[in-house]
Amino acid sequence: MTKHSDEGTLFRSKKFTDWPTVKEALISKEIGGVFILAPMAMQLVADGVPIKVVYLGHRDGTGIVVGKDAPIYDFEDLRGKVVAIPSRYANQNILMHRMMDEWGMPYDSIDLREVPPPEHPTALRAGAIDGYIVGEPFAAKAEVDGFGRVLYHTKDIWPEFISCVMVVRQDLIDERRELVQEMIDGIAKSGKWLDEDMQHRMDAAEVTAKHYYFQPPELLKYVLSKPEDRVKYTNLAPLRADFDEIMELAFKIGVLSRRVEFEEYADDSFVRPLDQLDWNMGRLPREGGDQ
Amino acid sequence: MKRKVGIGMLLWALLISLGHIQLNLGWSALRKEVAILTGQQREELVIGFLPVT
What we know:
The complex is a heterodimer. Chain A is α+β, with helices and mostly antiparallel strands. In chain A, 39% of the residues lie in helices and 18% in strands. Chain A has helices spanning 19-27, 38-46, 91-102, 120-126, 138-144, 154-157, 170-175, 177-196, 198-213, 217-223, 240-252, 262-265, and strands spanning 10-15, 33-37, 51-56, 59-60, 62-67, 82-85, 111-114, 131-135, 148-153, 164-169, 231-232. In chain A, the strands form 3 sheets. Chain A has a 5-stranded mixed sheet, with helices on both faces. Chain A starts with 9 loop residues before the first strand and ends in a 26-residue tail after the last helix. The mean pLDDT of chain A is 91. By secondary structure, chain B is mainly alpha-helical. In chain B, 9% of the residues are buried. At the A-B interface, strand 1, helix 1 and strand 2 of A face strand 1 of B. Strand 2 of chain A pairs parallel with strand 1 of chain B, so a sheet runs across the interface.
C-alpha cells in the first residue's frame, strides 16, 4: 500500500462518482486505468472506448443482506420484496438475475432498485428496503451494527464471484507495457501478501481504514476475517469462462447493448504465476495515503 | 551556398519540432518526460476508482 512501487513508479488514485466522467477521463487520457464494475467495462468497450480488462480487484466479498429478524430464510422468500443493488451495471445485478433463473422466478418477482452502496445499510435499517446486495464493507456493516444478517455470501452461491476489474487504456498496453506489468505485479503481490497470513489482513485493515476507506478498522477487520474466505485477493487472472458467463447474462437482461467477445475487452497476458512474485514485508508502512 | 542551405534546413527542422511540441505534445508534458528520463522525477500513473460496490 505504498504510493510508489519497488521500481519507483508513482501510482496515484483518483476517485470518481459517475460513469460518464470515467469514460471521458479514459478517452482524454487523464487516467491510465480504472477499477470498475465488470459489466460496465464490457459496455465501455461496446461503446468503442479502447480499454482492456487486465486483472481483477478481488474475488467474492459481496453479500445479500436482510433484516436481522425478517422472515427471509432463502432466496424464494425475497419474492415480492424490494432489494437494493449498487448499479444496473454491477455484477451484483447480474447475480440477482442468475439466482432468479436458478429458483425459477420471473425477473419481475423481486423489485430491484439502484441505491448508492453507502446508503444500503441505512435504507435497510429505516425499512425503505427489505434487503440489499452489495460489496464489502457495506454487507458487514449491518451485521456489525446488529440490525442485519447475511442471507448469502457470494462464495456460497456463485463461488469466485467477480465484482470490480482493473481496466487500462489500450495505448498504454501498446506503448507502456512495462508500466502496466509493474502495476499488475504490484496488485498480485499485495493480494498474495493479504491471503497468506491473517496478521497481514489485520495490518491492512488498520492502514486502509485510516487512509483509504475512512471506515472503522474493526469493520474492515470483521470483513477480512469473518469468515476468512469472505473476500479473497488471489486467483485474480481474468478467466474467459467467468467473463463469458457474465457477458451472456448481462446481454440477456439488457445491461449490454451488444455481445462483446473476450478478446475485445480482456488481455490476460500480464498475469504471472504467483510463485514468481513476492512482497517481502512484515507490516505496511504507516504513511499518509493519496486522495 | 551549401552552408546557407544547411542552416536553412536546420532552422526548418527546429521550427517543425517546436511546432510539434506546441501543437501535439505540450511543453509541460515535455518537461515531465525530460524530468523522468533524467531521474529527477518518478514516473506516474493515475488509476481511477468508482466506489459503487
